[in-house]
Amino acid sequence: MERIAFTDGTRICVLDENGRRERESGFIVKYKENSRRMAAGSAWKHTGRNAALRGEYEFSSPDAEENAPASLNGIAFTDKKDVVAYSFTVGQSSGIYYKDFSREKEDESHVVHDNEREYFTLSFDRKSGAMLASSAEIGDVCRRIVRFTPDGNRQSLTDGDSRDDNPFFSVSDEKILFDSAGVGRDEHGGFGGYAPAAIYALDLLTLDMVCLKEDEKYSYSKPKRDKDGNLYAVKRPAKENRIGNPLLEILLIPVRILGAIVGFVQFFTVAFSGKSLVAGKEVGPNPTKGRERKEREIFIEGNRIRVDRELKRNKRFKDKDYGFMPRSWQLVRIGQDGAETVLKSGVADYAVGQEGIYCTDGRHIYRLNGSECRKIADTEFCLHLDVQ
Q: What is the pLDDT of residues 252-301, one digit of tens each?
């Protein structure tokens, strides 16, 4: 069995013949612990009747999870058997670390850490020991492909007003593949959106760059090649048409405003008296101690995905194993003549192995081998994977 490395929420996981092993990011754990201590230490300033009288009352108490949101942005096997590289963002910090799964105790080493730059998807060349990553200044809409060499040097390989992402070491032709989407600007230079992503190949020796696949109606991302030179990518519509009924939205505006007013009054009534506006009605949890669960949203390559809505959409299909990725996101194989073969719909990420192609829909990991599609693992929130 081939070894699979993948992210599941903020957990770093490895799946092999010995089963599934999970590790937490040591940096994220420590960062959140510090954030919780700081939030607890200052909570008295913003809660209670005295804070309300001072006009400093917060409708929701400080939440360490919101103050320090964390995400794993990429994962890759290294040239060492049980060592995995992962990138992360937590709060205003980002970096790349190595996680050693051969040790029982949590053990990881530092590659890069930055408070001004953010690091995303990764690719590791197990022959040279070099690593690729996409990187951006925090808050910037442009991304660059960066190469880290074993001696610790860092080199930016791309430049321009574009989003360069998902680098990949192509073993078959010794080139670097990545996708690039131009940045649209308005007349004042403000961000106006991304153009459809296209696939490029960069020759490190000559620095020549060639466009391999582009289409004004579709974006092609996460390019990879297998040992035979076949090209793969995730194809998605350049513009998703998911706009609701405009007339219905207008008609619902007064209802939503009224609901907001009632909820506002209800909040203060329960917070300061412990009783509901309606006599005999169960109050339920005190809103000062908890909030309603927010709709989960993720952003992948500038695209907003509403997780719960996509789960409901995908549930309508006959397949009992469904994920939260839109079915319009398709894993395709691109032939030499440009012809495309759809291998799987609803794909967040994939990896090309010796025994097949491994992909995830967010909640499961599958192995594709010819016409066979076999589920090999269940996950909660998987967005990145690699195979060794």
A: 566 566 665 655 555 555 445 545 555 554 445 444 444 455 668 888 88
The SS3 of residue 320 is: coil
- The residue assigned the tokens 């060639």 is 210
Q: What are phi and psi of 333, to 5 degrees?
A: -105, 130
Torsion of CA 240, 319, 317, 308, to 10 degrees: -60
CB 146, CB 133: distance < 8 Å:
yes
| Residues 6 or more apart whose Cβ sits within 8 Å of residue 143 | 120, 134, 135, 136, 162, 163, 164, 165
Residues 53 and 368: their CA atoms lie apart, in Å, by: 62
> Per-residue pLDDT averaged across 74-80, rounded?
95
Task: For residue 271, give its domain range.
Answer: 246-292
Using CA of residue 282, residue 288, residue 293, residue 295, what is the dihedral sign? Answer: positive
CB-based contact 309:277 (threshold 8 Å): no
End-of-domain residue from the set 264, 292, 320? 292
Cα 351 from Cα 163, distance rounded (Å): 22
- Confidence (pLDDT) at 241: 44
For the whole prediction, is pTM greater than 0.85?
no
Q: What is the spatial distance between Cα 278 and Cα 217, in angstroms, rounded to a whole number?
A: 54
Percentage of residues in the chain having pLDDT higher than 90: 55
Of 13, 17, 67, whose CA–CA distance to 39 is shortest?
Answer: 67
Mean pLDDT of 21-47: 79
Looking at the fold, whether 224 and 122 belong to one and the same domain comes out as yes
> Is residue 162 domain-shared with residue 284, that is, in the same domain?
no
